[in-house]
Amino acid sequence: MDALTWIIVAAFYAPLHYLVPLLVAAFRSSDRQRKAQLRRTAIDCTISMSLGFLLVIWLAQDRLQLAMLILFVSMLLPYLRLLLARDSGAGS
Q1: How far does Cα 89 stand from its chain's mean position?
Q2: Of 8, 21, 32, 70, whose CB is crowded by the most CB atoms within 10 A?
């Protein structure tokens, strides 16, 4: 796949990757913690999307199904921190 194709894929993938985790972080955090929580979630989304896309671009030539599975899993990674934060917050 050429660079333009990957840019188009990223343009459609990014809103899905960022929007829901940021909304979850915004609704679940208090006013005092909201800014920090949103920043951490945006960083998580950026890291998981960047690493996911690097791996997917590398794998897409030979193993497209595995590459798409990795892209899907990388979309779920920001939720892991959100769930862990909730569990640790519930115990205090």
Answers
A1: 22
A2: 21
